[in-house]
Amino acid sequence: MNFSKAMRCCVVAPLGIAAAVAMAEQDSEVVSQIAQLKREIASLKGSESQWLSEERAAEIRSIVGDVLADADTRSSLQGSSGTSGYNGGFFLSSTDGNYSMKINVLEQIRWSFNDSEDGTTTTQANGFENKRTRLTFGGSMVDSSWSYQLAYYLGYSNSVETVGANEVSDAFVMKTFECGASLTVGQFKLPFCAEYQLDVGNLQFADYSTVDAIFCAGYGQGIKLGYESEVVRGSICYVNAPFQANQDWTAASPSSEWALVGRVEGKFAGNWSQFEHAQSWRGDSLGVRAGAGLSWNQANPDPSTDPSTDPSTEVAVFTIDTTVNFGGANLAVAYFCSSISDSGSAVVDDASPTGFTIAAGFFVTDDVELVARYETASMDVDLGGAQDFATISAGGNLYLAKNQAKLGVDFGYALDAISPVFSDYAIGNNWVLDTSSDGGQWMIRSQLSFSF
């Protein structure tokens, strides 16, 4: 054997063995490190899973909280406990309820057909009309004992009331006291007769009766003192004049030397809320009410003329009425009489007009009501030699959502000719002036009414 080769073997062999031993030790250390890393990774996976579970739980709790808050908000939108939403009108309110505003809309669309005769000539008229479009704001201020109302007619066709299109109807502030008394200041509907106290959106017919339009006191500007208890309520007003609204102050103001309008009524059965609408819904309890009203004023003479030749006119109007709700049927009766003093006028000279109305309704189903009305008025012959007025009407209503959405259709027949002294009031019920003294005028009308 070569000596050099032998020496190399002697040197390399131990080195190889040492290297192998070193590599084995390194492999063992790597394996140990890998095992340690595996344990750490496993630990991290466990903690990550726990962390993800906690995060998920927090997210779920947040989602549940949002859902509950949204549900609470939605429920508040349908009740009076929320600060905004709908409850008999769209409303906004402060959290304490001291300040609030409710917004209501009334929209009435009418179609009518009228047939009148003048001897041998027949005149027919038909068409649509935007009868009323009204926007109303109301609510409380300062605290719940203070209330206000502002109503504006965006549109009004053939108005026989004190107000018409593009005019304010109600504009008042009212303070209610714990004893049941109240004080109202501003412009408001005058409390006189039962039918006119109803909002026009809550009537059984398309409009107030013509007789009611003739004798009611309309709107006025002034102050009203009222009182309401469980069985009795009433009010008395001191105003510029009946049938006077949105009037400017002038050197001749007011137009009446004095004007008083008042009403008192007693409830013998039921509750007052039953008489806020003309209908007696099925399921309602028996309701009985009787009332009386007085409108009394003396007009100021024209300041530019001699008082001895232009005396003032004193007018007193009285009404008595009763309403009975049977729960599915109702009956309302009213009588009017008035006295117009000697004014020195050739047209008006101690006239004593009278009027009478009777109306009834009967529900054949929960949503379908049959209605009928008879009305008549007689003017003193000294009042322009006017003829009598008498009409009958009958029809029905389909209530889609009670008075919030309803369709009414009725047929009317005039027993007497519509004379000039009545025609200005009768036009609101789609009666027209008759040029002859013959009766027989008839009409058909239908009306969609929405109140929300």
Could you write a compact summary of the structure shown?
The chain is an alpha+beta fold and 452 residues long. The protein contains four helices and 18 strands. The protein has two domains: 1-76; 84-451, Beta Barrel (Porin).
Describe the structure.
- By secondary structure, this protein is α+β, with helices and mostly antiparallel strands.
- It folds into 2 domains: 1-76; 84-451, Beta Barrel (Porin), CATH 2.40.160.
- It has helices at residues 3-76, 194-197, 210-215, 420-426; strands at residues 84-86, 90-93, 100-118, 121-141, 143-156, 167-176, 181-189, 219-228, 232-239, 256-269, 287-299, 314-325, 329-340, 354-363, 368-378, 389-399, 405-414, 442-451.
- The chain has a 16-stranded antiparallel beta barrel.
Write down the overall mean pLDDT: 84
Number of strands: 18
Low-confidence stretches: 1-24, 75-80
Sheet with most strands: strand arrangement: 3-4-5-6-7-8-9-10-11-12-13-14-15-16-17-18
Instruction: Supply the CATH superfamily name of the largest domain.
Output: Porin
Using the alpha-carbon principal axes, give the shape: elongated
Count of helices?
4
Q: What keyword list fits this structure?
A:
alpha+beta; 452 residues; 2 domains; single chain
What layout of secondary structure does this protein have?
Layout: H1 3-76, E1 84-86, E2 90-93, E3 100-118, E4 121-141, E5 143-156, E6 167-176, E7 181-189, H2 194-197, H3 210-215, E8 219-228, E9 232-239, E10 256-269, E11 287-299, E12 314-325, E13 329-340, E14 354-363, E15 368-378, E16 389-399, E17 405-414, H4 420-426, E18 442-451
Antiparallel strand pairs: 1-2, 2-3, 3-4, 3-18, 4-5, 5-6, 6-7, 7-8, 8-9, 9-10, 10-11, 11-12, 12-13, 13-14, 14-15, 15-16, 16-17, 17-18
